C-alpha cells in the first residue's frame, strides 16, 4: 500500500487514515470506500443516531464525487465491525440509500449508482432571480390571458371525514388533545388580548423559528426562520407559489396521477397544465419534454408521491434541479406524508440536496397534527426573502396567532416529536394489517402500491372493474376509497384502482371492510 514503508510505519499510517475526521476527506478524494467510510462516528450522547450519521456520510461522499459511480461499498458486517456499531444500523442506512437511489444492491454487494448529471450545481445560473421577482411584484393582478383553457379535472368525491378507508385523514382519536388544550391555554395567558389583533403577516416568529429547526433536523432542509412563511394550510402555500412565480398562460408540470389540490391551484392561476407521468422512480421528464414544453413551475411530491407512493430517485432529483436552472423554472416540492416513513429513517427533502436550488418547499400540519388546525408553510430560497417581503405582506394577514404560539411550544417541548413517533408506530401497524387483509380477502387480480410511508395504500385493478363505480357504491356502506383515475388529468389504462386510507380506520375493521370491497368490485365488473 505504501511503497518503501516499514511494517510498523505502514500500520501507523493506516490507523491514522481510519481516524481522520470525515470532514477532512475532501482533500483526499482518491481514498478507497472502506477508508472513507470507516472514520469513527460521533458516539456522544447528544449526537445524531448512528444510522443517520452513516447515511449522511455516504450520501455526501456520493454527491461530492468522493465515492465514484460503480464503487462497491464495504459489506454490512465488515463496516459494522470497523465502526463498532450494529450490523442492523449499517443495513438500515444502506436500505435508505437504495430507496433514495444513491446506491444499488446486487449479488456482488452494494455499489454507488450513476447519477445522470454532475452532482452539486452551486449557483442558480440561468434563473434571472431579480428580474423575475421584479416582474412578479409589479403584477399583483393578472396582466395577460391564457392562450388555452385548462383541462378540467373531475371533482373529488365527497365523503364524511369519519368514513372508513378515506385517504388523507390521520388517527384523530389518538391525538393528545389534553396536552394541546393546555398549550393553547398557556398561549392565551401569555400573549393576552394583544394576540387577538393581526400579527406578523409572514407568521409568528416563534413558530417560524421552531419549524426551521425541526426541518433542518428531521428533513435536511436548509433554511433560516426568515425563509419560512406561515400559511393557511398547504393549499395557500401552493396558491402563493403560483401567484408569485408564474403569469397566466405559463406552463406548469404536474404529476399524473397526482394531488388534486396542486392542480386546483394551477387552474386558479390560469396556467396551462402539462401532466407528467409517474413510474416507480417518480416523475418522468425527458429532454424532449424540456424542449417542447418548458415549464415555469414543476409540482412534485418526491419523498412520497401522491397517490402512488413512488420515491423520486437521487439521479432524477439532480437532473430535475439542473434542468430547472437551465430553463428558468421553479420546482414546488410538496413534502407530502414525509414524516411517516415506516421503515428506517425518513427520506431527505429535495430542497437541501443542492445549495441555491430553485426549490419552493411546501409543508403542512394537517396530517402530523390535525386537519382543522389549518397551518402550513412555504420555505423560500434565501436569495428571494427580501425581494418577496412587500408582496407577501400585501397578500397575507397574520391569523391563528394563539394556535401558532401553541404549536411553537408543542414543537420546542418535544411533544411534537413524541407524537410523530407514536403515530409512525400506529400507522406502520395499520398498513401491515391492511396489506394482510388485502392479501387474504381481495380475491381478484390486483397490485398494491404505496411504499412504506404515509397514510394510504393504492390498489391497482384491471380496467374491467371501473374504479369510479366501485367508489360510488362503497360510499353507500360508509366506506370512502378514492378512485385512482380521479387523480389523473389524462387517465391511462392502468390508472384504475382504489386509494385506501388507513390513518383513521382501526385495524380490526380491515378484514370486513376488504371483504365488502371485494364484493362491490366483483359486482361492478363490466359485462
Question: Gist?
Answer:
The protein is an alpha/beta fold and 527 residues long.
The pLDDT mean sits at 85
The low-confidence parts are: 1-7, 9-31, 118-152
Q: Strand sequence of the main sheet, in spatial order? A: 3-10-9-8-7-4-5-6
CATH classification class of one domain: Mainly Alpha
Query: Distance between the terminal alpha carbons, to the nearest Å?
Result: 73 Å
General shape: globular
Provide a descriptive summary of the structure in words.
The structure is a single chain. The protein has helices spanning 7-18, 33-37, 50-63, 76-83, 87-100, 129-138, 177-191, 205-218, 233-245, 260-268, 287-292, 314-327, 385-395, 401-412, 415-441, 467-475, 510-523, and strands at residues 103-106, 109-112, 228-231, 251-256, 272-279, 282-283, 297-300, 330-334, 359-364, 376-379, 447-449, 456-460, 482-483, 497-501. The protein is an alpha/beta fold and 527 residues long. The protein has a domain at 7-112: Arc Repressor Mutant, subunit A. The protein has an 8-stranded mixed sheet, sandwiched between helices. It has a 4-stranded antiparallel sheet with strand order 11-12-14-13, covered by helices on one side. Strand 7 (297-300), helix 12 (314-327) and strand 8 form a beta-alpha-beta unit. Helix 7 (177-191) packs across helix 14 and helix 16 (467-475) packs across helix 17 (510-523).
Amino acid at each position: 500500500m505504501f511503497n518503501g514503508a516499514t511494517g510498523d510505519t505502514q500500520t501507523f499510517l493506516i490507523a491514522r487514515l481510519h481516524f481522520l475526521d470525515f470532514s477532512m476527506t475532501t482533500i483526499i478524494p482518491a481514498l478507497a470506500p472502506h477508508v472513507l467510510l470507516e472514520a469513527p462516528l460521533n458516539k456522544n450522547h447528544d449526537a445524531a443516531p448512528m444510522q443517520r450519521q452513516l447515511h449522511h456520510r455516504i450520501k455526501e461522499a456520493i454527491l461530492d464525487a468522493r465515492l465514484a459511480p460503480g464503487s462497491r461499498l464495504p459489506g454490512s458486517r465488515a463496516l459494522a465491525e470497523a465502526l463498532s456499531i450494529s450490523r442492523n444500523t449499517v443495513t438500515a442506512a444502506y436500505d435508505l440509500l437504495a430507496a433514495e437511489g444513491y446506491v444499488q444492491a446486487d449479488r456482488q454487494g452494494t455499489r454507488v449508482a450513476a447519477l445522470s448529471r454532475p452532482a452539486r450545481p452551486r449557483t442558480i445560473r440561468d434563473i434571472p432571480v431579480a428580474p423575475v421577482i421584479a416582474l412578479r411584484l409589479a403584477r399583483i393582478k393578472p396582466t395577460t390571458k391564457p392562450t388555452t383553457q385548462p383541462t378540467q379535472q373531475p371533482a373529488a368525491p365527497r365523503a364524511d371525514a369519519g368514513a372508513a378507508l378515506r385517504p388523507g385523514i390521520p388517527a384523530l382519536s389518538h391525538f393528545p388533545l389534553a396536552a394541546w388544550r393546555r398549550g393553547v391555554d398557556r398561549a392565551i395567558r401569555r400573549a393576552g388580548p394583544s394576540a387577538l389583533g393581526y400579527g406578523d403577516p409572514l407568521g409568528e416568529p416563534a413558530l417560524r423559528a421552531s419549524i426551521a429547526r425541526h426541518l433542518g433536523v428531521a428533513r435536511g432542509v436548509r433554511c433560516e426562520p426568515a425563509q419560512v412563511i406561515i400559511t393557511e394550510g398547504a393549499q395557500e402555500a401552493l396558491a402563493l407559489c403560483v401567484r408569485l412565480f408564474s403569469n397566466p398562460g405559463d406552463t406548469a408540470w404536474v404529476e399524473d396521477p397526482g394531488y388534486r389540490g396542486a392542480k386546483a391551484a394551477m387552474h386558479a392561476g390560469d396556467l396551462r397544465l402539462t401532466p407528467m407521468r409517474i413510474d416507480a422512480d417518480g416523475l418522468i421528464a425527458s429532454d424532449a419534454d424540456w424542449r417542447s414544453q418548458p415549464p415555469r413551475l414543476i409540482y412534485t411530491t418526491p419523498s412520497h408521491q401522491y397517490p402512488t407512493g413512488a420515491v423520486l430517485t437521487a439521479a432524477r432529483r439532480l437532473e430535475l434541479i439542473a434542468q430547472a436552472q437551465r430553463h428558468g423554472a421553479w420546482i414546488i416540492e410538496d413534502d407530502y406524508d414525509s414524516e411517516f416513513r415506516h421503515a428506517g429513517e425518513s427520506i431527505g427533502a429535495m430542497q437541501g440536496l443542492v445549495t441555491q436550488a430553485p426549490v419552493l418547499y411546501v409543508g403542512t400540519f394537517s396530517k402530523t397534527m390535525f386537519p382543522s388546525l389549518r397551518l402550513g408553510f412555504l420555505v423560500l430560497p434565501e436569495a428571494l426573502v427580501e425581494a418577496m417581503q412587500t408582496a407577501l405582506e400585501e397578500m397575507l394577514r397574520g391569523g391563528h396567532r394563539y394556535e401558532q404560539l401553541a404549536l411553537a411550544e408543542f414543537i420546542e417541548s418535544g411533544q411534537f416529536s413524541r407524537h410523530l413517533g407514536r403515530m409512525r408506530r400506529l400507522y406502520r401497524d395499520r398498513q401491515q394489517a391492511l396489506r394482510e387483509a388485502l392479501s387474504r380477502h381481495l380475491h381478484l387480480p390486483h397490485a398494491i402500491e404505496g411504499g412504506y410511508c404515509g397514510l394510504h395504500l393504492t390498489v391497482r385493478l384491471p380496467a374491467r372493474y371501473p374504479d369510479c363505480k366501485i367508489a360510488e357504491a362503497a360510499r353507500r356502506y360508509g366506506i370512502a376509497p378514492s378512485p385512482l383515475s380521479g387523480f389523473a388529468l389524462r387517465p391511462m389504462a392502468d390508472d384504475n384502482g382504489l386509494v385506501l386510507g388507513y390513518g383513521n380506520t382501526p385495524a380490526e375493521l380491515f378484514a370486513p371492510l376488504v371483504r365488502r370491497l371485494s364484493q362491490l368490485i366483483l359486482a361492478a365488473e363490466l359485462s
